[in-house]
Design goal:
alpha+beta; 5-stranded antiparallel beta sheet
Length: 179
Amino acid sequence: MVALRASDPPAHTLALVAGLAVHGALSLLGGPPDMQLKWPNDLMIRGAKLAGILLERAGDHVVIGIGVNLAQAPEVAGRRTASLSALGHVMDRDAVAVTLAQCMADALLEWRRGGWPAAILTRWHAAAHPRGTALTLTEGEHAGLTGRFDGLEQDGSLALRLGDGRRIIIHAGDVSLAD
């Protein structure tokens, strides 16, 4: 849980910060080098979901829930999932928790000390799937629309380049990797 301060960046940006912390922790512990962040809150591996992040605001606090498929991956209809152990990366749960807690503390400190947006967005882009990756919007007014990842805006919103060249900005929702 993060207690928000008046001087903090926007609370919704914590999803990106938490994603960086998860990616960083698993990387430090020898996770697969081809893990990639997917906007707004997933860690993917070869097109399958490896970890997810949920945020819930409670007054002046944000509760951050993080789930990492360490030993097994749940079956989810319509979505590929993966676990670290099935990929040959067996990790101790407690070591992941300790490392993740430190990475989250470091990421929060950066977020609060001026790392948002420039430094954090730069790091997020470096850990994410590349620009041009095909994405399909799965929620909201544009559900079903497919375009190409065109980066994140300064507020953390998703930029999607459509086939006709138009660029749309998605502020909330979810996307899947297009097949």
